[in-house]
Amino acid sequence: xxxxxxxxxxxxxxxxxxxxxxxxxxxxxxxxxxxxxxxxxxxxxxxxxxxxxxxxxxxxxxxxxxxxxxxxxxxxxxxxxxxxxxxxxxxxxxxxxxxxxxxxxxxxxxxxxxxxxxxxxxxxxxxxxxxxxxxxxxxxxxxxxxxxxxxxxxxxxxxxxxxxxxxxxxxxxxxxxxxxxxxxxxxxxxxxxxxxxxxxxxxxxxxxxxxxxxxxxxxxxxxxxxxxxxxxxxxxxxxxxxxxxxxxxxxxxxxxxxxxxxxxxxxxxxxxxxxxxxxx
Length: 280
Ligand code: PAF
Hints:
about 20% strand, 2 domains, 11 helices, binds pantoate, alpha/beta, 9 strands, Cyt_trans-like, pantothenate biosynthesis, ATP binding
């Protein structure tokens, strides 16, 4: 496996893969890899000739300096994990490569970022769409893999690819959870044991939404009230949002008629976690 840190070297490698007419599977990450990333890497390995994983902590998608500064770093360990999964290349550029001096072009999106995390984290999704566009232009993947835990991100990227005719097949794979149900996230590493225990209220609230919906409760307000009370009962929690949205437009729905998503963002101490379940 090769570790490439330079954009032009990465582009040269991609050209040689394209010359051989081989397919490229791509898993973009910000590092601090866990089993959720590994599941993406395994699918990409199975479905493509060449597998490229990027590890780049993208500063432009952080709306909070503290979150960026405290994001876990473990590049050597990440490279070992990816190598074990039989990737061909790790692309790990520095910020001077991705945002060289004078960089001033950003990709922004309309409507889909007006709700959920987009509403509360100004600039976040413009950072995501910009870096994903750059990575797709450099790596020119046939297929790119994302996790359902970042539901809004996956919808935003699907739309980015469609609107800008990028011709990448975006694969969204199910959220990987710990045995206790907590969605795996790089940010979980920042929770102390008591906070980790409190964080279980997030999945608990989503399961409640699912069971209410299964017993024919369609009124979002009623479901959100129950979810709120579960989360408020847990220690160290502060709710950013609990929403039920249309699964495609991400607009709030007052009553669940088509495919919807229950989505939650909660601070557990100083760590903000998100999770969701599809209701259909
Ligand atoms: O989901 C992530 O880890 C990031 O948002 C991504 C897609 C790698 C872009 O930096």
